[in-house]
Amino acid sequence: MDLITELNQAIEYIEENLDDKLELEEIAKVTSYSPYHFQRIFNYITGIPLSEYIRKRRLSMAVFDLQEGEKVIDVALKYGYLSADSFTRAFEKQHGMTPSQVKTCLNYGQEFIRNGFRIQAMKSAKVHHLNSIMEMPETEMFVVKS
């Protein structure tokens, strides 16, 4: 199996288990890499640590749960927070609004979008990667988030 396929399988595993306790060891088992190497590869390719990706995805999914009428404490516990206060702080830091404000805001749609990966070959292209532009040499293979 190639790196891109394994990363996509790991992302799929994470997405399917966002409301469960996610352990690095379990995520890495989906790939052929050790937990240490998987975490480093993920960080290198995406530009963010695996733990931050999971946290941001959980907080994004929490928006939908809140807008469906779930209580703040229930959503906090669902996504692994021990208290509504710690959930509210993390939520507000990411979204700029409290969970209660998002509950009543019908048009709120800001989310941290799920990653996907593919290999792309281009000749002398500019690639946007995490808000920066990188010049790619001619016909070099590289990974882009899709």
Question: How would you characterize the overall build of this protein?
Answer:
There is one protein chain. The protein has 146 residues and is α+β, with helices and mostly antiparallel strands. It has a two-stranded antiparallel ribbon. α5 packs across α6.
User: Residue ranges: pLDDT <50 for 5 or more in a row?
Assistant: 119-144
- Summed over residues and divided by their number, the pLDDT gives a mean of 79
Radius of gyration: 17 Å
| Separation, N- and C-terminal Cα atoms | 19 Å
Helix content, binned percent: 40-55%
Shape annotation: elongated
Q: Biggest sheet: strands side by side, in what order? A: 1-4
Write a concise synopsis of the structure shown.
With 146 residues, the protein is of the alpha+beta class. The chain has helices at residues 3-16, 24-29, 35-46, 50-67, 72-78, 84-95, 99-104, and strands at residues 117-122, 126-129, 132-135, 140-145.
SSE arrangement:
Blueprint: H1 3-16, H2 24-29, H3 35-46, H4 50-67, H5 72-78, H6 84-95, H7 99-104, E1 117-122, E2 126-129, E3 132-135, E4 140-145
Antiparallel strand pairs: 1-4, 2-3
Helix pairs in contact: 5-6
